[in-house]
Amino acid sequence: MTPDINRQNSCCFTGHRSSKLPWRGNHDDERCLLLKERLYDIVEALYNAGIRHYICGMAVGSDMYFCEAVIRLRAEHNEVTLEAAIPCEEQTKLWGKRERRRYNYLVHQCDYETVIQHEYTKDCMHKRNRYMVDNSSVLVAVYDGTFGGTFQTITYAISKGLEIIEIRP
Questions:
Q1: What pLDDT does residue 26 have?
Q2: What's the CA gap between 133 and 153, in Å, rounded?
Q3: Alpha helices in 77-122 (DSSP H)
Q4: N or C terminus of the chain with fewer C-beta within 10 Å?
Q5: Cα angle at 109 between 106 and 110, to 5 degrees?
Q6: Could you give the CA distance from residue 44 to residue 114 in angstroms, rounded to a whole number?
């Protein structure tokens, strides 16, 4: 865990990648803009409830919207910290140039980087998700009800007693 960070004042995020969202990565779609505002409203409400540290898994799609919402919150409240939980050093290897550029910008904006492991393995995303849940008291999830990594993260968070805030995309 990062220095001086308490699990009780920490929040993590899980959500669908761009390909599973109805707007397929069109960041100007009205539904996407509404989701981004909703995420900001949620991180602001969590801040008002005492959350100061936010952990993001840095995947394309919902994760990046969450990361941007926390960066916006931190601009208003300098005690907010943001951690990039990176599953492996090769996370962006198969991404397009635009996605990698955005990822690099967002990671650079984070206060902390936690790289779970050096090389990609089938379970590195799963390990990243467990790390985030194990170091948080609240999970925010953009979830449409389908099976996958978001479902598994929510299920693990429930087993660990986290408060779950679920948003339907």
A1: 77
A2: 8
A3: 97-109
A4: N
A5: 95
A6: 24
Contacts for 142 with CB less than 8 Å, ≥ 6 apart: 14, 15, 16, 21, 35, 39, 62, 65, 66, 150, 167, 168, 169
- Domains of the chain (ranges; CATH) run 7-167 (3.40.50.450)
Output phi, psi for 152, to 5 deg.
Answer: -65, -40
Distance CA(27)–CA(50), nearest Å, equals 30
The angle at the Cα of 111, spanning 39 to 98, to the nearest 5 degrees, equals 65
Residue 36 main-chain phi, psi, to 5 deg:
-60, -40
Q: Is the dihedral of CA 63, 66, 67, 68 positive or negative?
A: positive
User: What confidence score (pLDDT) does residue 3 get?
Assistant: 55
At which residue do the structure tokens 């929040």 appear?
Answer: 11
pLDDT at 4: 65
User: Which residue from 134, 138, 153 is spatially nearest to 59, judged by alpha carbons?
Assistant: 153
